[in-house]
Design goal:
The complex is a heterodimer of chains A (275) and B (635). Helix content of chain A is 86%, strand content 0%. In chain A, helix 4 packs across helix 6 and helix 5 runs antiparallel to helix 6. The chains are: A mainly alpha (275), B alpha+beta (635).
Chain lengths: 275, 635
């Protein structure tokens, strides 16, 4: 089943590259809203030392630069207050848009517009669940303090077990949420049934793990590229910019592919009995 | 049979330890004005110690002395009204004092040749007159001590140790085991400064006691001498202490250990039943590391840092003469402290190799064996001489041994020790606070740390840059050779540096040690003018923006790639350099003490290259895209 789902994901990328371009394009445009003013503020503040700053990391010069640019940087940070919620709404809308387009072969914007409201509600429900799980984990930490004797076992449970548990919980809830959104679109059901469909997401685990691993792999390669390429000259700065954006395009493709697998793994609504 | 084995082990331990001298010298090098022969018993159940023995003091003055003065520093923790508690609010370096587990020391017996003097003992408050402070006591003597003569006091005392505060006391760990860091635990004699010593005028009719109350932002000051200390602890306790262990004996109820130290001015010890012990050697030094069991995997990190420090100090400053060094991985607020031949380091259970806090603390605290230990300045009055000079050495050793990224070593984010001290110096108004300030006179503990550690390290890096490393090192080595096992002052440091540099450094010390001058030079202008013969003339204007004067080195690069260097004394508010040729770029040599580096460079017609913006637009765009995808996992 997983192999078929992965094949469907791969097909989704190949057959509808426009979806990858939409996901990538909106993501990069919204990133620009923060990144460009940030870079311009740094450039302006650095004055005649910008060549040095571009060439290597110099803590003292960076300190001066941030001190000089702190007013502009604060303004940029304030933009996050509206850009982040806007992105979250877009993320919820684009998820159901992808499901709709991949299930029907067309109509990304139509699907996004039709299901966006309910997709946001699903996102809120699972966010509440995530917060509840987080609270539960904190309660567990407290309980461990009372129940388990101090020592290596308690330390590793608290310092390693809890963070790992939290990451697994985030991933599981993320899987259930996507399954609910897929059911909402593919099965065209109400909110209640869509949420219940999230509970039956386990057959999708294999495909989810593999596509998530691919996404994390891209993140790792991106970090490695950034830290290994100094980008002190115009040429290397352009190479860095292009390299990072190629990786981000791949990341958008992985998102599309995951939705392709998701749609393939979501049962179609059963037909009414014929007479 | 069991008794026989115990006896055999005890005899073996005793024999093994007895051959070692505490230093590489055949005889003591210091004046030995004091000698402590004490026997102390630790009572873990009550967190108390009981001590008895003899204190010997020799009058170094040319006139009789009729009073002794003592530090009784555990009394700093007796209640909320002591000077320490009032100044600190019960909080010391992020660790708060317990509301219920106080500390105190009570002298129960004090006699000279059988004559009871306890009733004569009186508390004095030389610094602030606080009537609730009992950290300094004076003892009028019935018979003055004649010049060159010694007095021997028989003393008994009891002390309650506080729950750890200011690096002293006890702590119960999560597993129920107890940890003791026993410091400032005995009646310690103050320093009697004779005429000509430190700031006592050479023509003064007599010397004077220099004894300070325990303050929130101060460490210690005492005289060199001999410590012969016998410690009794429960038989399962592991002990670390100043000096060499000369005797060890185990009986079913008590473990007895005797330590001997000379040419030191304090004695501290630690005890815990759960210490994991590691040992190694470096040349003549026996290193002993006492670690919390959960940190045992990090033993080699500590030893490596200690060896690096021993090598570096030996090479730059001079030999480490003691034959032991005990490193203690303490608990809570006990860490990051120095005592003669014993330092507390500390770490966390998870300490990634790219965070070098254990290394930094180990190297810093070891450095205090020189700047505090042997070069025993008055830490109350001139803390920069130990914390500051030592922080300067710490930055050099850390950055050379572990850099780049000596403190934090992450891909794309490497932070070195020297620059991070500079940032600490800049972190609040740099014009606040002179290095030469009595510790408790700083406005708060943050200023004390920022100035005595970080500003001092930065100022000394600037001095090194000015003098050159070879001269700086020669100065430090001369300072060590001339002043070890004595009590040097800022004046003595200046005199040594001037001697080796062969120049008057008053401009430097008056501005940056005694004063609060701030350095900020700006490259204000770079103009090109075409001359009638079609050649170019470049005008470079440098401005001094703050009151600090520091010689500047101006470097210029011409369009043909040629570079020139010009020196300027930095005294006037502005200096203009007229240069033949077309200068493309001019910059001032980076000076650690300059508070604004961005204005130290200028390029002809401005730098319009967008490479910095492009680089950080590329990076931050990708960061934001990753953030979007990660947020997608949550909502």
């Amino acid at each position: 089943m997983t192999r078929t789902a992965l094949a469907c994901g791969w097909q989704a990328i190949r057959r509808w590259p426009i979806l990858t371009l939409i996901i990538y394009g909106v993501g990069v445009a919204m990133a620009f809203l923060i990144a460009i003013p940030f870079a311009v503020a740094i450039q302006d503040a650095a004055g005649s030392s910008k060549g040095l700053l571009a060439g290597s990391f110099e803590l003292g010069l960076w300190y001066d630069t941030f001190r000089e640019a702190r007013g502009d940087l604060f303004t940029v940070a304030l933009h996050l207050l509206w850009v982040v919620p806007l992105y979250l709404v877009w993320d919820a809308a684009s998820s159901v848009g992808l499901c709709f387009a991949l299930a029907n072969g067309h109509g990304f914007w139509h699907g996004a517009g039709r299901f966006a409201g309910r997709s946001v509600v699903i996102g809120l429900v699972y966010l509440a669940m995530l917060i509840a799980v987080l609270a539960g984990l904190i309660a567990m930490i407290e309980a461990m303090g009372l129940l388990i004797a101090p020592g290596a076992v308690r330390f590793y449970l608290q310092a390693v077990g809890i963070p790992v548990g939290l990451v697994l919980a985030v991933l599981l809830i993320n899987l259930m949420r996507d399954a609910s959104r897929a059911a909402l679109v593919v099965q065209d059901v109400g909110l209640g049934r869509a949420l219940r469909a999230g509970l039956a997401a386990w057959p999708m685990t294999g495909a989810y793990v593999l596509w998530t691993a691919a996404a994390l792999g891209i993140l790792a390669v991106s970090i490695a590229l950034e830290s290994s390429l100094n980008a002190g000259t115009m040429g290397s700065a352009v190479i860095l910019a292009v390299g990072l954006q190629v990786l981000m395009l791949l990341r958008a493709a992985v998102r599309v592919a995951w939705h392709g697998s998701l749609v393939a793994l979501t049962p179609l609504p059963s037909l009414p009995a014929g007479g | 049979m069991r008794s026989f084995l115990v006896l055999l082990v005890a005899c073996t331990l005793t024999t093994l330890a007895s051959a070692q001298r505490p230093t590489t010298f055949d005889e003591p090098q210091s004046e030995l004005r004091v000698r402590y022969t004490l026997e102390v018993t630790l009572r873990p159940a009550t967190r108390t110690i009981e001590g008895s023995g003899q204190l010997q003091w020799r009058n170094p003055d040319r006139v009789p002395v009729d009073t002794l003065q003592f530090h009784l520093y555990l009394n700093a923790f007796r209640d909320a009204n002591t000077t320490f508690m009032r100044e600190s609010g019960g909080m010391h370096r992020g660790f708060s004092a317990s509301d219920s587990n106080h500390g105190a020391i009570n002298i129960t017996g004090l006699a000279v040749r059988g004559e009871n003097l306890l009733d004569s003992l009186m508390f004095i408050r030389p610094d602030d007159g606080n009537p609730d402070d009992y950290t300094v006591a004076a003892l009028p003597l019935p018979n003055p001590v004649q010049p060159g003569d010694s007095i021997i006091l028989d003393v008994t005392f009891e002390a309650s140790l506080p729950q750890i505060v200011a690096r002293t006391g006890w702590m119960e760990k999560d597993d129920g085991s107890l940890f003791f860091m026993v410091a400032q635990w005995f009646p310690k004699l103050g320093v009697y400064e004779i005429p000509g010593q430190r700031y006592v005028p050479v023509d003064a009719p007599r010397g004077r006691w220099n004894t300070h109350q325990f303050h929130a932002n101060s460490e210690f000051y005492a005289d060199f001498g001999i410590y012969d200390i016998t410690i009794h602890v429960p038989p399962d306790y592991v002990v670390g202490a100043t000096g060499v262990r000369t005797h060890a004996h185990d009986s079913p109820d008590v473990r007895t250990l005797r330590y001997y130290a000379e040419d030191v001015h304090d004695f501290a010890w630690t005890a815990s039943p759960v210490f994991r012990e590691f040992t190694t050697t470096w040349r003549h030094v026996n290193l002993r590391l006492l670690m919390q069991p959960e940190h045992a995997r990090q033993a080699e990190r500590h030893f490596k840092a200690a060896r690096i420090a021993l090598e570096a100090f030996d090479e730059i400053i001079g030999p480490y003469p003691y034959t032991t060094l005990t490193l203690v991985d303490g608990v809570g607020g006990s860490n990051g402290m120095e005592y003669p031949t014993l330092i507390t380091c500390g770490t966390l259970q998870i300490m990634p190799s790219w965070v070098r806090m254990p290394e930094l603390v180990t190297i810093h605290e070891f450095g205090h064996q020189y700047f505090y230990g042997m070069l025993a300045n008055n830490e109350f009055e001139e803390a920069w001489l130990d914390e500051g000079v030592n922080s300067y050495m710490e930055t050099r050793i850390m950055d050379e041994a572990y850099g780049p990224g000596s403190v934090l070593d992450l891909p794309g984010l490497r932070i070195d020790d020297g620059p991070s001290h500079r940032l600490m110096y800049l972190s609040t108004a740099p014009e606040r606070g002179a290095l030469f300030t009595w510790s408790w006179k700083y406005s708060n503990d943050f200023d004390y740390g920022r100035i005595t550690y970080s500003k001092a390290a930065t100022v000394l890096r600037a001095l090194e840059q000015y003098l050159g490393r070879a001269v700086m090192d020669r100065g430090l080595r001369t300072y060590y050779e001339r002043w070890r096992f004595r009590h040097p002052t800022t004046r003595d440091v200046q005199a040594v540096m001037e001697e080796v540099a062969e120049e008057d450094l008053d401009w430097f010390f008056s501005q940056y040690v005694y004063g609060t001058a701030v350095v900020d030079y700006e490259l204000a202008e770079l103009n090109l003018t075409q001359l009638p013969d079609y050649s170019f003339k470049s005008t470079v204007r440098v401005r001094r923006l703050r009151n600090g004067i520091f010689p500047q080195v101006l470097r210029v690069r011409f369009t043909n790639g040629r570079e020139e260097m010009h020196e300027w004394d930095g005294v006037s508010e502005e200096e203009t350099f007229q240069l033949r040729g077309q200068v493309s770029e001019a910059w001032l040599e980076q000076n650690p003490i300059d508070v604004h580096w961005l204005n130290n460079r200028i390029v002809a017609q401005g730098d319009s290259s967008p490479k910095l913006a492009l680089k950080y637009a590329a990076k931050s765009t990708a960061w934001m895209q990753h953030v979007w995808h990660l947020l997608g996992f949550l909502f």
